[in-house]
Amino acid sequence: MIDDIPTHRPFEAFQSFVLDCKLYWTRQMFPELRSRYEEAKSGAGSEPKSAAEVETLMRDDTTYQFFGWYERHLQRMKYSGRHGLALHYGQHRDKLVSELNVSIPDRLIQIDPEFQQPEYYTSIDIHQHPGGVWSDEIAGYVYERGAKSTAPMLDKATSLHHRLTAEALSRAGKPVKRVVDLGCGFGGSSRPFYQDNPDIEVVGVELSEPCVRLAARRAAEEQARNVVFRQADAADTGLEEGQADIVTSTMVLHEMPPKHIEKLLKESHRLLSPGGLSIHLDFLTGDQPFKTFVHYGHSKRNNEPFMPPLNEMDIVAAHKAAGFDDVEIVPFEEMPGTLSEDFGYWRFPWTLIVARKAA
Ligand SMILES: C[S@@+](CC[C@H](N)C(=O)[O-])C[C@H]1O[C@@H](n2cnc3c(N)ncnc32)[C@H](O)[C@@H]1O
Does ligand 1 come within 6 angstroms of the Cβ of 104? Predict the structure, then answer.
């Protein structure tokens, strides 16, 4: 990948400081929070049954207060601090914009000049990213860099995507000619499909024009010939029906309200060929009050308001209403060892939601 902006020492120092703080939060503070919770629980003599009951138990705990404060403000500094991503990339705006506007072959990109964003999408600065990932023409670059410290335990931003790609292809159960990746962002989730499988045609669908442009630019750098990035709503892609053997999404469902998820599932069913696979990777905590408490706190602190509604919706019923029969919801091991009982660090509650269109 081409270096887009010159290395700037104060920026690199600031961002690696933020990343190290996030690692400390993940590896030290989270286990401490959990042991404080275990102590509080045995002190109270009863087991909380919901995230709200855990919150009541932990509200005055200083470790919990610091844990939450630290998470919120690290994220804010990452984007909006003195050497935050928004300001820093903004200083290189002209260069970045010109790079997005040249050398992207038409076959890699489909932009809709009349496109109207859904209201839920524009109403919040998701991830505390100023203006969200869509409103600034260089937002794709800012988001691409920001994603490197979202889950700091992942060694490479792409390893998670490689694991999902392998899982999807192994579950496909038939030759895969075309994959539709809904909410593909700057292309990270589409890349292992198109890069490692030149016989598969990949369509990345994304609301954000800056992200679509960056995804296409990266594909052009890689000289990819089997992918196109399309600006469209995942719930209404405008793609031909029955064309996909796999419809997938990664970290997208939790970014939209349940009504929109229902439409996205109907659209997934429409896009799939008979026997095609629907596979969505997202965050679900199941019936675990402490994990849910941490996850709902993250939702508030990271400006991601649709995490709790996704967690609470009846996903099986929504799939059935969309036409799918068998629905499987299983934990996903985003890197080796994370599903082991001994894994004690903070992690997202990665979960696969898999269904198949009748053959
Ligand atoms: C957390 S990012 C994940 C990006 C990518 N799938 C990945 O794994 O790197 C979620 C993406 O979903 C996009 N998104 C949200 N709602 C969408 C919708 N209705 N249709 C298409 N994309 C959507 C956002 O713009 C954002 O780029």
Answer: no
List the one residue out of 120, 68, 128 whose CA is nearest residue 302.
Answer: 128
Ligand 1 neighbourhood includes 120 CB (under 6 angstroms): no
Residue-by-residue pLDDT tens, the chain, 359 positions: 556 787 789 999 999 999 999 999 999 999 999 999 999 999 998 899 999 999 999 999 999 999 999 999 999 999 998 899 999 999 999 999 988 887 789 999 999 999 999 999 999 999 999 999 998 999 999 999 988 877 766 665 558 999 999 999 999 999 999 999 999 999 999 999 999 999 999 999 999 999 999 999 999 999 999 999 999 999 999 999 999 999 999 999 999 999 999 999 999 999 999 999 999 999 999 999 999 999 999 999 999 999 999 999 999 999 999 999 889 999 999 999 999 999 999 999 999 999 999 99
Cβ–Cβ under 8 Å, residues 226 and 198? yes
Mutate to test the pocket of ligand 1, among 255, 264, 281, 283 (most ligand atoms within 8 A of CB): 255
Q: Which CATH architecture has domain 149-356?
A: 3-Layer(aba) Sandwich (3.40)
The token duo for 37 is 């919770």
Token pair 């990343």 in the structure block, residue: 19
Q: Give, as one character, the DSSP assignment of residue 239.
A: P
The protein residue with its alpha carbon nearest to ligand 1, atom 7, reads 189
